[in-house]
Amino acid sequence: MLFALRMGLMGLHFVVAGILGLIIGICRPFNPDNSRLCARLYSMPALRILRLKLSRDAKGLLEHQRSCVIIANHQSNYDLYVLGRVVPKRTVSIGKKSLKWVPFFGQLYWLAGNVLIERGNAQQAKQAMLTTTETLQHQDTSIWVFPEGTRNKGEGLLPFKKGAFQMAIAAGVPIIPVCVSSYVKNMHLNRWNAGSIKIRSLPAISTAGMTLDDIPELMQRCWDLMQQTIAQLDAELVRA
What we know:
Elements: H1 2-27, H2 34-50, E1 52-57, H3 59-62, E2 69-72, H4 79-83, E3 91-96, H5 105-111, E4 115-117, H6 122-138, E5 142-145, H7 163-171, E6 175-180, E7 195-201, H8 215-239
Parallel strand pairs: 1-7, 2-5, 2-6, 3-4, 3-5
Antiparallel strand pairs: 6-7
Helix pairs in contact: 1-2, 1-5, 6-7
């Protein structure tokens, strides 16, 4: 019963937040800070509806003063609500071009200045890379990427794809990893308190002086750091 009520409220919230976000996008189209505002619109009410207790240790991320590439582990569609609380100012993301046709959400996602690419299209992927490099270097904007490329469904961190690391090196900007505890399998939406989640941002990793030859080592370094941190967050929740 509680699960059904929550899902009904979440469906209503998704529509209302989408309409409000769309209004923001129409009033100030392609403003790179639209994503942060819309992320808050989706996240803050949703966490209350779901009764998820969120603990954030992301001061370094939120106070970072220059463009960067933010990488985070990707567990489920609920990431929109969980990670929406820590999206910093002037941050956009990269999404599938098909998102543009999702009612309300897709249109506001586009108007927020996010980069839409057609997966499997090499020419468009190359153009997207040029666009994101330009954004990072000259528009005082950061880019949020899920380097696993797909949801891991709480089964552990998947191997990273190299796009985020190519962007960071090409633009000469640091990478900031953001780690979320493994919440998917520990989220009980049919209980009054659905669960606890921890988020922690790690210190920025410089890409200064790196070339494309450094990508494999950089990817492995980031993967190892995130894997260790996620395990720490999970252990902290068990002890709590």
